[in-house]
Hints:
Layout: E1 5-6, H1 9-12, H2 16-23, E2 27-32, E3 35-48, E4 75-80, E5 84-90, E6 98-107, H3 130-137, E7 153-157, E8 165-168, E9 182-185
Antiparallel strand pairs: 1-7, 2-3, 2-7, 3-6, 3-9, 4-5, 5-6, 8-9
The chain binds a DNA duplex through residues 45, 47, 54-56, 59, 62-64, 78-84, 86, 88, 101, 103, 117-119, 129-132, 135, 170-174.
Amino acid sequence: MGGFRKLRRSFYARPTLQVARDIIGKFIVYRSPQGKLSARIVEVEAYIGRGDPACHAARGKTERNEVMFGKAGVTYIYFIYGMYHCLNFVTEPAGRPAALLLRAAEPAEGTGLMKKGGSRQGLDRLLSGPGKFCRAFGLTRAHNGLDLTGDKIYLEDRNKPAGEIVTTTRIGINHGRQHRWRFYDAGSAAVSRK
DNA sequence: TGAATGATGCGCT
DNA sequence: GCGCATCATTCAT
Length: 194
């Protein structure tokens, strides 16, 4: 089993926009209580530091966002709109708060365990949004701050990189719109929006 | 096929 | 009390 390379902390502890490009095409693996789930990452957004008004860390450290201020390579999961969770990967060296929001992925292993939402859509739409991903994987605030270099949840390089990576402005924000900090695999049908 | 809208809880001012 | 890194449904074209 496995045989693939688990991404180390040094992968995450770099400038966020570099990590964003490199993370497209990597696989996220979650060893859930029900079994192994995995998916190929096809869309992320960058949220970078005090100077980015859309970043939760822009107004300083709080109980909610404190993991972003710590070491790279841990999960940052928050609750939004009263019913959804969003998964992020903390980037940059400790003390420099930043993260990548996982927006979409292609289901790989454990698709039968992934919790489907209300509507019935094809497999390529099952993880096509940040809220949908966490719902399908069963991730909540209970999984905030998990170490991505551990064995419960981690990223792997399975040698399936993106062909073309497109950059656009970020979705669903009111401030910091000018930055083109959304990255996605142009060849994927699982991207949330084109 | 796209725009509008309701659901629903909580962090923060 | 307001606004939110969303989504599924409804209604209009």
